[in-house]
Amino acid sequence: MGGRISEKEEQTRMKLYKQGLSDGEIARKVGVKRTTIISWRYLRALAKKRETKKRAGYKDTAPQRTTAAVISQAKRRKDFLNKGKLKKQYP
Description:
mainly alpha; rod-shaped; 5 helices
């Protein structure tokens, strides 16, 4: 649990890091957890080499609301505003 690593292990990790492998890839090759590699890299002030891979079908934007949902919401808002005093406040 914790502790120093051997010089050989240090060299192996550094070699893999310099090859551009991600934390997860380095961890798999040396047989430790990814968080161990993150800590190792952090203690040596090494930058993250590359971004994590995105899952297949991943979208960068929030899912768009369906047209029916937007229409329904607009109708409910209009009905709400048309009741009572609110009708006088909003066109």
